[in-house]
Structures are given as C-alpha cells and as structure tokens.
Amino acid sequence: MHRNQKIGLVIPARNEQKLIEPTLTHVPALIDKIYVVDDGSTDKTCEVVESVRQKDPRVELIRHEKNQGPGQAIITGYEKASQDDCKVVVVVGGDYQMPLDCVTDFIDPIIDKEADYTKGNRFETGKGAFDRMPITRLFGNILITALTKIACGYYKVVDVVDGYTAISKRAIDAIRWERAWKGYGYPMNFLIQLNMRGFKIKDIPRDAIYLPGERQSQIKGIRYALKVSPMLLRGFFWRIIQRYLFRNFHPLVIFYFLGIFLFPLGVTYGFFLLFEEKIRHIDISPGQSVLCALYIITGLQFLLFAMLFDMQESS
Q1: Burial class of residue 154 in the structure, from the number of CB atoms within 10 Å of its CB (0-12 exposed, 13-18 middle, 19+ buried)
Q2: What is the CATH number of the domain that holds 110?
C-alpha cells in the first residue's frame, strides 16, 4: 500500500530463469500484488517463480501456454490487476534491468493526478544510457523515438522503448486492449492508444542496469526500428482519424492529409522535372518550377502546422 492506494506490479517474463529471482526479491514492500505473466517459457522460469511465491504471498503466477508476445503478457497483467482493484499498476521486465528503488517516482504523479501513465527515461540521469547503451541500440532508439513522437502525438517524450511504466486503473479500464500491439514494439503502440483517449503521460528519469555477460534486450537497433515502422505508420493514421475526425473534429486532420498529399507530390514532380531537363533535355518553364516549389512549400507548411496543433492538443 502506498498513500492508501493499492499498487500492483506486472512482470512479463519469457525464459528469464536467471534473472527473475533477483527481480522478485528486490520488489519493495509498498507493492501489494506482484503478477508474473509467464509468456510460454521453455526454461525453468515458472519453477523459479513458484519457489519465490512460497516465501512471498504477494506473488501470483499467470501462465500463457503459448507465447503471445510481451505486449499481450502486460495486457493480461493489467486486466488481472484491474480486477483486483489495483489503483496504480507498475510494469518492469523480468530481466533485473529496471531498479525498483525509484518506483514511487512513477506512482506518485498518477496518484496526484498529474498523469495517467508514467514511463522511464534513461537519458536524463547522471548515469544516463547515452554512455552505456550499445551504439547500435542507441541509434535505433533515437530513430524509433523520432518516429513515435509523430505517430503517438506526445512530442515531449524521450526513450519511448523503455518498458518501465506505471498506469492508472482508469486508463486500463478505458482502453480497448484487443486493438493494441501484442509483440515487440508494444511501448510505442501503447502510447498511441493512450493519446487517442486523451490521457496525460509523464517521463520519469531513471537509471538503467546493464549486467555484464547477460542478454537483456531483444532490441536490435536499426533492424528493430524498421520492423516496427509499419505499425507506427498504421497507428498514426488510426489515431488521427479516431481522435480528430470521429471523436472530436479538429482542423489539424485536414492539415495533415493536405501536407501528406502535397509534399510528396511536389518532391515527385521535382524529380520528374529534373528527369525531363537532364535526361530528355526538355526545357522547364518558369511556371512548372513555381508549381513544384508551391507544392513542396505548401505541403511542408501544412505538415508543420498539423504537428504544432497535435503537440498542443497532446500536451
């Protein structure tokens, strides 16, 4: 119990027999319920969890017989925690990479109604991830963050792939989780789901733990970014249409679609004119050049105005 609020902790785990025990044994007393969601592990993860459960009655093991993805494991934990009336639900991995000594930093803004969802930010502490994260993962993280800012509308968020989060019961009950992304890439998709419902989020600076010799992340830098990009693109259009067209009309939806149409049209037309001039040696008229520039400049302005409005609506 923390500030008279029941607190739940969800730990998605798949083949974490080495690190799940230290993760569980370092859970602070303020956590009332611990939900370990085993996502089809093929090692001894469940046995280790059961041995800890004998000593700590807060621990509850939920098993997926088949692997359904880390996103679904978290959703399963969310739904069980909500049924048990946990007012705030924290999520950490089962790889002992997320220090729980700072968990109140994630919980308090939700209790104080400053945010509905808090997430870790490993780049704003004295022991930031810039110095310790492998360069390929760091570059991939920056690329994914840039794409996610546009897709989810939360332009002030940083380190969007961090899975250390907390969420209010109100947000859990409001979101239709069957539409959420179930596999890797779920943190970014969850942000899209939250923005569509108009929930507030807050970054929480936190240290990262990188244990030597342990494989603690499935993220493979640029490869990961390319894999989740189609999901982000679909999520962007879904969020814009749902939030700003169907639920509550806002002119930014018109700005976005005009910009998305005109800017690529101008760039494509520009390459066509270059082809005509350089390859086919056909003179380009001033009117054609002006029209090309008009498409590009107008399209870019529409996109920038749409992003500005989106940022204001999501702040």
Answers
A1: buried
A2: 3.90.550.10
